[in-house]
Amino acid sequence: xxxxxxxLAIIMMSVVVLLLAACSGENGEGQKDVSEDxxxxxxxxxxxxxxxxxxxxxxxxxxxxxxxxxxDGSDVYVNMTAQITDIEIDxxxxxxxxxFNGEAPGPLVVVxxxxxxxxxxxxxxxxxxxxxxxxxxxxxxDKGFADVAPNEEGTFVYEASNPGVFxxxxxxxxxxxxxxxxxxxxxxxxxxxxxxTDDEVDQEYVIIQNEWYKYNDLDNMTNExxxxxxxxxxxxxxxxxxxxxxxxxxxxxxLKAKVGDKxxxxxxxxxxxxxxxxxxxxxLFDDVYIDGNPANHQEGMQTVGLPASGGAVVEFIVKEPxxxxxxxxxxxxxxxxxxxxxxxxx
Length: 346
Ligand SMILES: [Cu+2]
Fold this sequence. Notes:
Radius of gyration: 29 Å
Strand order of the largest sheet: 11-10-13-18-15-16
Number of domains: 2
CATH superfamily of the largest domain: Cupredoxins -  blue copper proteins
Number of helices: 6
Mean pLDDT: 90
Bound molecules: copper (II) ion
Low-confidence stretches: 15-47
């Protein structure tokens, strides 16, 4: 029935059909494998790199709450919130921060030496207890800094008996998670008799250093280098920058002074883990009050070391117009954001 040519044609056709079938099978299988691999790698990447937001926090982004502070004689009533608020700590990088009042660092609190602080914490977090540890006060920490349960309020009373530039932070276990996720700030207790250099000061600002780590990752916070080291400012006077601790905050919103001004910075390093070596490029500090206590007066310092939680008042005169950068002189941290600008004009 078939001649040799016919048989050859049938064999050729069969080979082509078999090859096509094999190829389509390979392609189909191949595509499936690749897309499965892709799905798996995306899942793996998001598990490894993506934020691990606590389930109860996922849908929460509380609006910042203005600080509520009222004075009645030497009694000061300070009402603050613990709340969950998104903060863009670097371009396009949102951090679902655990905060006081929706800011990280939290709002600046200023009281006078000898005041009685009546502090109320409204814990708006539905899932985790929070607390307040003011470094400015003496109290039994298990009582004065006790946890406030989710959706509850707690009130605590203590004296601000020592002047200074103090850290405050959430003290709930594990403390590192609460501080590194954003629950830190500064309380200034103004000295009764002021600082001996008060009359010389023309401009004064508050500068805070803090670090950020991989989102809510206690292992990373414990064992690794910070991802960002940042400087922020809290408005001490109307019209001053009031920023979060974000990369470039004080480059985008520089501080300002005039030639010949004596400038005072109230500084604090809230950490949680790293030292700060605070330095202003192009000048040196005529007067320094370590931890902001007038009794700790030093002169002629180039750099002021701030341990984690440590503060200082530093004062210097800007003699020429220009842009004076201030940094932590640990320059690996400048690479991660630890720099701001003071612009001095005629
Ligand atoms: Cu907390």
